[in-house]
Specification:
Layout: E1 14-16, H1 40-56, E2 65-68, H2 73-81, E3 87-89, H3 98-101, H4 104-111, E4 115-119, E5 136-140, H5 141-149, H6 163-170, E6 190-194, E7 199-203, E8 209-215, E9 218-223, H7 247-252, E10 262-266, E11 271-274, E12 279-284, E13 288-293
Parallel strand pairs: 2-3
Antiparallel strand pairs: 1-2, 3-11, 4-5, 6-13, 7-12, 8-11, 8-13, 9-10, 9-12
């Protein structure tokens, strides 16, 4: 097999996107998103962001999320981390034992009945993510696996918000993981374990994240920060739209229909770099285990200056 070129852009990588969902990606002339008419500075800012996105749309590579392999540390920094551009890095963790071992039965055997915190009773509350702390439940891990084995759904999910509480319980799984020294320091990630159908609503993060897909498949819809005016930014880091695939929400928030979006499909062994400020929503297609990391080799401290509600 020929080694990939040093510069991943020279490889002309596959471009992430789905024509049916990439609304207006190639649109060049368009009206700026609605903004308060009395705030000239704000309207000019939105105009500038729209013009910049329209210019990026002139290039197939510049307007898309690449899928690459063999990405060096320096190329990742220069082409993606520093510019704040998402990228999917394929097969970067194919050698981790977890990819072959982590069946539901294996996880049960390794973790046993150690108490595990999860987000429960989510289905009845549309703001389950904002109200995450009120949804914390604790179950023996075996009982949690029994609960999610019944099928798909979004009612119970071990998420990153449960990570600190679950570190001891899930520690036996660490030996099945490797390290991503090319991009990260050696620190713990945050584990997500849930059935098919789990959903994380539209939001952005206050850190750069590296999402490592271990088991199962996930679909991620991503939008650049320049689309914020169309996404009805509500409380904290969340969009009032919640779900860009839900027609009832788009009826309520029609500006979101015109927002440029990318669909990223993740499978076992894929890494997704999600830059700070990029909007995204995530849906599991199968039983899924994912780990997110924020411990990059470079500064990752934007959260310190985020204007609080």
């Amino acid at each position: 097999m020929t080694a990939p070129p040093r510069n991943p852009l020279e490889a002309r990588p596959a471009l992430v996107g789905e024509p049916g969902l990439n609304v207006a990606l190639s649109r060049i002339g368009f009206s700026p998103a609605s903004a308060p008419k009395t705030d000239l500075a704000l309207r000019r800012r939105e105009w500038m962001l729209d013009v910049m996105e329209a210019q990026r749309a002139l290039s197939e590579e510049a307007r898309a999320i690449p899928r690459v392999r063999g990405l060096s540390s320096q190329d990742f920094l220069d082409s993606y981390y520093a510019p704040g551009r998402p990228v999917v890095i394929e097969r970067a963790i194919d050698h981790w034992p977890a990819l072959k071992r982590w069946t539901p039965d294996y996880l049960r055997r390794k973790v046993g009945d150690a108490p595990v915190e999860n987000q429960g009773d989510r289905a009845a509350n549309p703001d389950f993510e904002i109200d995450g702390y009120s949804h914390k439940k604790v179950l023996p891990f075996g009982a949690y696996m029994d609960l999610i084995a019944a099928g798909s759904g979004n009612d119970a999910y071990v998420t990153a918000n449960n990570s600190a509480a679950n570190r001891a319980a899930l520690a036996p799984l660490e030996r099945d993981l490797g390290h991503i020294d090319t991009y990260l320091t050696r620190a713990h990630g945050m584990m997500w374990i849930g059935p098919g159908g789990t959903f994380t609503p539209l939001h952005f993060d206050l850190t750069n994240n590296l999402i490592a897909q271990i088991v199962g498949r996930k679909s991620v819809i991503m939008l650049p920060p320049s689309e914020s005016a169309r996404l009805h930014h509500g409380r904290h880091v969340f969009s009032a739209v919640r779900d860009l695939e839900d027609e009832t929400r788009l009826v309520l928030y029609p500006l979101a229909r015109a927002a440029r979006r990318f669909v990223v499909d993740l499978g076992p062994g894929d890494l997704l770099y999600s830059p700070i400020g990029w909007w995204h929503q995530v849906r599991s297609r199968d039983f899924s285990v994912t780990i997110t990391y924020t411990n990059f080799r470079w500064p990752n401290e934007g959260f310190d200056s985020f204007p609080a509600d």
